[in-house]
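Researcher: Predict the fold of Membrane protein.
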Amino acid sequence: MVAIAAPRYGRSLHPIHAILLAFPFPLFLGALVSDLAYWNTFQIQWSNFSSWLIAGGLLGGGLAMLWALVDLIRFRGTRGLQPLMYFVVLLAMFVLGFINALVHAKDAWAIMPEGLYLSAITTLLALVAAWIGYSGFRSREYA
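Model: Structure tokens for Membrane protein follow.
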């Protein structure tokens, strides 16, 4: 008798959760680009753009994080460590994004270089969260 190892996949993202997860990365990336433009030109409007983009990223990211928390509680222990890691990355993205929003609330001349660094880290965390979320939550393989 031959044992065939077939991967068994857990639940993938709900379509609404996937739409919510699509917002943070491009919005935080736009904030990073706006911060880079402000770093080079010192035109205050770039700081305003960045603040609004961060607010949008926090809104989409917060809703995706809330959905991930509900999924984590509902399917506790059935899908391994990946959903927990996904939630933790979303939480870190949200916390650093909120701190970034507070930094951008200061006077435009006072946000550099902290705002730029926080925007870069938040963008990287949003990319990692999207990578984990869209890769699917796989469970173990059976033999």
